[in-house]
Amino acid sequence: MRKTLAISAALGVAALGVLVPTTSAQASTACDTSWNSAPPGSFYAYDFTDCSGLLGRTAESSDANWGDSSGPFQGNADNAASSILHKGTSGMAVKVYQYPGYLGGHACLKKSESYKEDLSRHTFSNGAGMDNDISSHRWVWESACGTFLD
Amino acid sequence: MRRAFVSACAAALIVTFTAAGCTTSTSERPGPAQPQRDTAAKSSRSEGRELTDAERVLVQRAEQLLIKECMEGEGFKYWVGPLPTVDDLKGGGYVLTDADWAKRHGYGSRLEEKLQDAQRSDPNHAYANGLPQKERVRYGKTLEGGPSGGMLTAELPGGGTVQTPRHSCLSKAKEQLYGDFETWFRAEKTTTNLTDLYVPDLLEDKRFVSALKEWSACMREAGHGYADPPEIRAELPELTKGLSPDASHAVEVKLAVDEAVCATKTPLSATAHALDEKYRDELRATYGDAIATYEHMSLAALDRAEDITGDMA
After folding, report:
1. Helix (H, G, I), strand (E, B), or coil: what is residue B117?
2. Rg over CA atoms, chain B
3. Which segment of B92-101, B148-157, B241-250 scores lowest on mean pLDDT?
4. Residues of A in contact with B162 (CB under 8 A)
5. Per-residue pLDDT tens digits for A22-35
6. Closest Cα in chain B, distance from residue A34 (Å)
7. Looking at the predicted complex, does its ipTM rise above 0.85?
8. Tens of pLDDT along B126-153?
9. In terms of DSSP H, where are the helices of B240-267?
10. Is A109 helix (H, G, I), strand (E, B) or coil?
11. Tag placement on chain B: N or C end, fewer CB within 10 Å?
């Protein structure tokens, strides 16, 4: 990271946020395999990191409460996910929320962002950690990600 | 001439990210491609501006057309869409501030159902899932790419990273629209994740807290006892439980309109927008280059999108 920034500075190029060398990207082999075999348009959540321990999956349904007995994610899926995967087809993103009812902190996995293999490295919009803390999800238009007001 | 100018600026942006001379032709654009200009759009600034919702939809349509062209070139069928309307892109913020939108859509439950239907009935899903296994895998890799083609990684401002495949029909479409996929990906990831850094502080800002109290008092006068807008969203399922679709919609609309009216009648809307802008501006010291790049590349993409949708639609 530091090296890339130094190169940027040397070239007289303003740093775009933080550039991370591709070599530091720890792509998950297990998640790659899951992604390759997932049906297009689907969203998966896993109990453990690296896309292991499937909690639930869906290709079409939102779920306002991962802790109840309806929808694609039920009971033990609530506050349990440690990795998630999204294989998009349309232009929509999957938005996950900290609380049931699409409330609390949120985060998006847009089309072609494939997966988050370790949610302990990620936070919701309100700063809370995402690991073992997702309680609802829905599909949203991509531009609904990352705004405080309309 | 305009196209050449824009291309030159886009190229310059990749190098410098500042390109002060590239803003004027794009910030006051003639109207044919933006008949639905969003009145709430951020005003043009000398350093660029965000796209209006109508413009976002246009760019999205162009992206879909480019993806379709790419997928068909690889031997697959591809259907454009689904695409949002301008109304679809509203209603997801902290508080409703547009009473007209609220009157039409309440809190957007019906729009939400429509979106789920669109996701469910996307013909691309049925097509891709009907392909033989080997072709289905090739379809996914062609559309979205895969790790074997190399991954781009962007670090998010609030922590964590996002990865995306370097080569795919999607990345090719974005390259055609934005001029440089890698630069766009990083700028977009930074700019659209800044809320993570400041919204928690904004919600505790005493000016916001004070405005929220006035909004809450206004709501109480209208017959609703809520401390803040999220409380309404949390209670809405209970309030509409067991009601007919029409009755449920009526409950939603009444609350939503009162929420929006109270937001504009009290200082809440103005304060929230002002603080949103203030907190974002403060982040420009750290992320200004990414924001400027995002805004300029978005405007350049809009120019291309107008040509693309005109030629390919």
Report:
1. helix
2. 22
3. B148-157
4. 113, 116
5. 333 455 789 989 98
6. 11
7. no
8. 999 999 999 999 999 999 998 778 889 9
9. 245-265
10. strand
11. N
3-state secondary structure of A50: coil
Residue where the block lists tokens 């919701």: A124
User: Quick one: what percent of chain B has pLDDT higher than 70?
Assistant: 84
What's the predicted TM-score (pTM) here? 0.81
Q: What is the pLDDT of residue B312?
A: 63
- B174's tokens: 């974005």
Distance (Å) from the C-alpha of residue B226 to the closest C-alpha of chain A?
16
Please enumerate, as own/partner, the contacts of A58-61 that have beta carbons within 8 Å and a separation of 24 or more: A59/B125, A60/B116, A60/B119, A60/B120, A60/B125, A61/B116, A61/B120
d(CA A71, CA B122): 20
Q: Which helix (H) or strand (E) holds A53?
A: strand A52-58
Q: Which residues of B touch A14 (CB under 8 A)?
A: 16-18, 289
Please indicate whether, in this complex, the C-beta atoms of A150 and B190 are within 8 angstroms of each other.
no
Q: Which chain B residue has its CA at the smallest distance from A127's CA?
A: B196
Virtual torsion, Cα A48, A50, A55, A57, nearest 10 deg: 160
> Cα separation of A21 and A4, whole Å?
7
Query: What is residue A129's DSSP assignment?
Result: B
Mutate to test the interface with A, among B112, B122, B182, B189 (most CBs of A within 10 A): B122
8 A C-beta contact, residue A134 and residue A97: yes
pLDDT of residue B79: 95
- Give the one of B56, B161, B165 whose C-beta lies nearest to A143's C-beta: B56
CATH for A26-144 is 2.60.20.10
A90: nearest CB among B95, B98, B124: B124
Q: For chain A, give the mean pLDDT.
A: 81
Chain B CB contacts of A116 under 8 Å are 160, 162
Confidence of residue B313 (pLDDT cuts 50, 70, 90): low
Q: How far apart are CA B95 and CA B263, in angstroms?
A: 8
